[in-house]
Amino acid sequence: MSTSSPYDNLPDAHGFFGEFGGQFVPPEMKQVMDEISVAYQEIRQRKDFQEELAYLLADYVGRPSPIFYARRLSEKLGGARIYLKREDLNHTGAHKINHCLGEALLAKFMNKTKVIAETGAGQHGVALATACALVGIPCEIHMGTVDIAKEHPNVTKMKILGATLIPVTRGTATLKDAVDSAFDEYLKDPHNFIYAIGSVVGPHPFPGMVRDFQSVVGREAREQFLERYSKLPNYIAACVGGGSNAMGIFTAFLNDESVKLIGVEPAGEGLDTKRHAATMTLGKPGQIHGMACYVLEDDEGNPLPVHSIASGLDYPGSGPQHSYLKDLGRVEYASADDTECLDAFMMLSRVEGIIPALESAHAVAWAIREAPKLSQEQSILVNLSGRGDKDADYVAEKLGLN
Question: pTM score, two decimals?
Fold first, then answer.
C-alpha cells in the first residue's frame, strides 16, 4: 500500500479532509471539541479500551457480520452477482451500534454525566440508548415528530432502554432539526454533557472518530471476500445521508483502485423537484453543523428543506470525507428515488426473505438497476446497513398491504 496515498492520514491535525471538515464553531466550543479529540486520541491507544471494544463487538454486537450471496436476486436480474454485507444482523439491527459503543465508552472515560444525540430513522437512537444502558450513563435522544410517527417501533425501543426522548417540532421536524435541537441542549453544559453525533458529520473530531469506529465493517468485508472468493468485489454500494455506513465499508478499499465505490443518495420524489436529499449530486461546498462539506442550500446560504422516504437520509449536508472523495473522483455518487427504494425493499423481502431498512434499500435499488448491465463474472457488494423492522408498518400502509 502506497504511503503517499491521498486517502491516508486523514483528517489532518485541524480536522480537514482537503478543504472539507474542520471546526466551524464558537471559540468556547472549540475548546470542548479539542478536549474530546485529545480524550479520543488517548483512549484509542489504550490496550484496555481496544480489548473491551473488541470483546463487545464480538460477544455483544455479534461481529463479524456475514457476507451473503443473494443468489435468487442475482439470478432474477441477470448480470452481476449481488452480495450483501449483513449489518442488519447486528444487535439493535444496524451498523450504528459500532460507533455508539465507542462513543459510550468515550463518555464513560471522560466522566460525562449525560449523552445527547439526534436520530432520524431511530437506529442511532436505539443503538446509543443500548450502549448507554450497557455502560450506565443517562441518554437523551432528540427526534423530529415526523420521524417519530414514521418510526414508532424504534421510539418504543428507546423508551424501554431508558432513554429520554425529546420530540422536535421546529422546522420540518425531521433529522436536520433534531440535530439543531440536540446541539442546543448540549450547549447548556458541554463540559458535563457529550453530544454523540450519529454519523461522519459535525465538527472535528467526530467525522474521523465515527469513521474509525465504523471501519470494522470494511476490514471484515475485505478479508471475508478475499478469503471466500480470492478476489475483491468489482463494486461496493452503500447508501449515503450523513454517510457513516458508507465510510465504514469504503475505508478499507480506498487504495484498491480496481474496486468502484458507489454512494447512493436519496433522489426522493425526483432530482428535478425540490423533494429530495441528493446533497452530493446537486449540492455545493458550504458549511453546516460546524463543518465544511457539500450542502443543499438556498441563495442566502441557508440549508434547504430536504425529503427522503428514509428518515435516516433526509439531511441537507454530508460527511466531509465524502465531499473530499467526491472531488477526488474516488467515489461515484448516484441516487435512487422513493419509488425505486420501495421496489427494492419489496423485491429483496420477497426474493431473498430479507427485509432491508429503507435507507439500505437505496443501495439495493442501485444494485438492482445496475446489475443487469454487467457480466456474470462481475460482483456488487451492497452494505445492507440495517434491517427494516422499523419500516414495516410504514411501508405496509404506504403500499396498502394492511
Answer: 0.96
Running DSSP on this structure, what letter comes out for residue 241? S
Mean pLDDT by 10 residues, the chain (402 residues): 78 97 94 96 96 98 98 98 98 98 97 96 95 97 95 94 97 93 93 95 98 98 98 98 98 98 98 98 97 96 95 96 98 98 98 98 98 98 97 95 86
- What CA–CA distance (Å, rounded) separates 172 from 181? 12
Say how far apart CA 264 and CA 53 lie, in whole Å.
30
> What is the dotted CATH code of the domain comprising 64-93+216-398?
3.40.50.1100
Alpha-carbon gap, residue 252 to 354, rounded angstroms: 26
Which residues lie below 8 Å from residue 120, measured CB to CB, with a gap of 6+? 143, 144, 147, 174, 175, 178, 198, 241, 311, 312, 313, 314, 315
CATH assignment of 23-57+96-210?
3.40.50.1100
> DSSP label at 313?
G
Instruction: Say whether 64-93+216-398 and 23-57+96-210 share the same fold.
Output: yes
For residue range 220-245, what is the model confidence (pLDDT) as tens digits?
A: 999 999 999 999 999 999 999 999 99
Catalytic residue among 85, 96, 112, 157: 96
Going from N- to C-terminal start, the domains of the chain cover: 23-57+96-210, 64-93+216-398
What would the pLDDT profile of 4-49 be if each residue is shown by its tens digit?
A: 789 999 999 999 999 999 999 999 899 999 999 999 999 999 999 9
- Can 385 be counted among the known catalytic residues? yes
118 is catalytic: yes
Residue 318 annotated to the active site: no
Residues 118, 140, 340, 370: which is the catalytic one?
A: 118
Handedness of CA 271, 274, 275, 281 (dihedral sign): positive
